Amino acid sequence: MAFENNDRVIVVDHPMVQHKLAILRDKTTSSKQFRELVRELAMFEAYEATRDLPLEEVVVETPVAEATCSIIKGRKMAIVPILRAGLGMVEGVLDLIPAARVGHLGMYRDEETHIPHEYYAKMPEDIAERDVLVVDPMLATGGSLVAAIEYLRKQGVKNLKLMVLVAAPEGVKTVLEADPDVVLYTCAVDERLNDAAYIVPGLGDAGDRIFGTK
Ligand code: URA
């Protein structure tokens, strides 16, 4: 399904990203290469997700003359991976934003109500003042990401962006409806979810492929 970019869903359609995503999807790609690609894609996506950072002018002395340059205007950022697969994206974002703090959020789904709850949360203490990038490679039903959004809003987070690699249309709809301000970055919006809540065509179980488990 072709998905139109809009101001809340940004599909990162750069040729390098799409090329790497094709290799990521391939079932013959090794765990080692899969992990490297997740990291690289997360870095490219973070590049897009930080495009609106405010700049300020500074004067730098080059070996030749003074140059008026732009630097990022003191924004504090945090990366919040959803355990476990989100961990695979953290290093890629840190490659671009080395000063970012990292919070961790673990979710489990209640067997009876099917509602996801956090079982582990460890955030930087000033999380409310930080611009937060939530990372999770797969946006399937959207349940975990909605729970993550609710958790972070309760902590006072105002600027919240979601970064996934592959999304299902059902999940996109769910997260956008859950929060009027959240913005989603993804490399692809696929066809649908199957009965087992896997994304079709997707890439399988991202956590298992990152960590070489089954
Ligand atoms: N989580 C995954 O890892 N893959 C899917 O297709 C859906 C959820």
TrEMBL record:
HAMAP family in UniProt: Upp_B
E.C. no: 2.4.2.9
GO biological process: UMP salvage; uracil salvage
Binding site for 5-phospho-alpha-D-ribose 1-diphosphate: 84, 109, 136-144, 205
Species, as recorded: Slackia faecicanis
Family recorded in the similarity comment: Belongs to the UPRTase family.
Pathway: Pyrimidine metabolism; UMP biosynthesis via salvage pathway; UMP from uracil: step 1/1
Name of this protein: Uracil phosphoribosyltransferase
Binding site for uracil: 199, 204-206
Entry function: Catalyzes the conversion of uracil and 5-phospho-alpha-D-ribose 1-diphosphate (PRPP) to UMP and diphosphate.
Keyword field contains Secreted: no
Note on how the cofactor is bound: Binds 1 Mg(2+) ion per subunit. The magnesium is bound as Mg-PRPP.
Swiss-Prot/TrEMBL catalytic activity: UMP + diphosphate = 5-phospho-alpha-D-ribose 1-diphosphate + uracil
Domain Phosphoribosyltransferase, chain residue ranges per copy: 11-213
UniProt cross-references to CDD domains, sorted A to Z: PRTases_typeI
Pfam families for the chain: UPRTase (PF14681)
Cofactor: Mg(2+)
Gene Ontology CC terms: cytoplasm
